[in-house]
Amino acid sequence: MVKKWLMTALFVLIAAGPLVAANMAGEGVILGKARVVDGDTLRIGAIPIRLQGIDAPEIKQTCRTEHGVEWACGRVVTQVLTKMVKGRTVSCIGTGLDKYGRTLAKCSVDGQDIGAYLVENGLALAYRKYSSDYVSAEIRAAHSDTGFWSGAVQTPAAFRVAAQQSTKPPNAACAIKGNISKGGRIYHVPGSKWYNKTKIDPRAGERWFCSVSDAQKAGWRAPHG
């Protein structure tokens, strides 16, 4: 009877919202339904979670097959992860916070390690810079030409560096830079003092705007001076 009561209580808690036992440092258990942000980032309730030990292609990143055919690997990974967690309870063990304030965690669904699944299927890389947990899985995927290993692979890290170094907007009509710095959210219009020196990092919440009005409505301000 006691066990049955505990299971019922746990079900009610999960149904009502995420069960969070993590501390302010991001360490502990987070349990609940998840929303996918991209191939290696989830949200459970209001908590952003970065899957630890893997690095998946960015949403706008593309890959090429061995025959040179381009495919939207970033969107495919996001879709696979969305299907994997949809309607299911995701269990995460947080180990800390990354520089963006996201909880670093290993997560599973129905007993399946999400990071391991993505790496084994050639949909993410082992993030060797921070962990060696999925290196063996990556080697197996590479040897069997699974997923993006069937063609040329650009690491997500290299893609991010190239994107950050680019000063060209993805749309020529939307060239206003929305930068986030210690001074807050600041927009820079073409020809302004800091425009050419400002780099945009979408993963940090920075973005491009098509008009000053759009930037101001989104909460960005003009630089002082």
Can you put this structure into words, describing what you see?
The termini are far apart. The protein has a five-stranded mixed beta barrel. It has a three-stranded antiparallel β-sheet with strand order 7-6-12, with no helix packed on it. The longest helix is centred in the first third of the chain and has 15 residues, at 2-16. It is globular, with a radius of gyration of 20 Å. It has 225 residues and is of the alpha+beta class. The protein has helices at 2-16, 73-85, 114-120, 135-143, 156-165, 212-217, and strands at residues 19-20, 27-38, 41-44, 47-51, 54-55, 63-65, 70-71, 89-97, 103-109, 112-113, 125-126, 151-152, 176-181, 184-188, 207-209. The protein has two domains: 2-160, OB fold (Dihydrolipoamide Acetyltransferase, E2P) (Beta Barrel); 167-217, no CATH class. Strand 6 and strand 7 (70-71) form a beta hairpin. Residues 5-14 have low confidence and may be disordered. It is built from six helices and 15 strands.
